[in-house]
């Protein structure tokens, strides 16, 4: 069944070289297929992964497209900020961030940032 398979996210990039620099320099990630010219595969913990592929459609989604689960959000955010990641501030009905962090009624916390391609990414506690 599909529920027993690993899942991988897919993100668009209008400039794959620029995106590669962001994921390396800001997030500390290196692609599994560094020689590829039209897509980059990144592996993360526990068999999770995501693919960046080149397309002119990048940056058009207005929703969170990929998220990492953190066990220490404050430390992970501090590390990302030290690398130059800027967290978004939101003030919507049901979601307000303070210093980049939203606290949900359940006690979970999350933060969002953009990559160079306009993709909305998140890091949160679960």
CATH H-tier superfamily: 2,3-Dihydroxybiphenyl 1,2-Dioxygenase, domain 1
With strands numbered from the N-terminus, the spatial order across the biggest sheet is 4-9-8-7-6-5
Protein structure class: alpha+beta
Number of strands: 9
Number of domains: 1
Specify the CATH architecture: Roll
Q: What is the overall number of helices?
A: 2
> In the CATH hierarchy, what is the class?
Alpha Beta
The low-confidence runs, each spanning 5 or more residues with pLDDT under 50, are none
- SSE sequence, one letter per element: EHEEEHEEEEE
InterPro entries: Glyas_Bleomycin-R_OHBP_Dase, Glyas_Fos-R_dOase_dom, VOC_core
Protein name: VOC family protein
Pfam families: Glyoxalase (PF00903)
Question: Outline of this structure?
Answer:
By secondary structure, the protein is an alpha+beta fold. The chain has two helices and nine strands, in the order E-H-E-E-E-H-E-E-E-E-E.
Overview of this protein structure:
It holds the Pfam family Glyoxalase. Residues 4-126 form the VOC domain. It comes from Arthrobacter terricola. InterPro entries: Glyas_Bleomycin-R_OHBP_Dase, Glyas_Fos-R_dOase_dom, VOC_core. A six-stranded mixed β-sheet has the order 4-9-8-7-6-5. Strands 1-3-2 form a three-stranded mixed β-sheet. It is 16% helix and 36% strand. It has helices spanning 16-25, 73-82; strands spanning 8-13, 39-43, 49-54, 64-70, 91-92, 95-98, 101-103, 109-114, 120-125. By secondary structure, the chain is an alpha+beta fold. A hairpin with a 5-residue loop joins strand 8 and strand 9. 21% of the residues are buried. The chain has a single domain (2-125), classed as 2,3-Dihydroxybiphenyl 1,2-Dioxygenase, domain 1 (Roll), CATH 3.10.180.10.
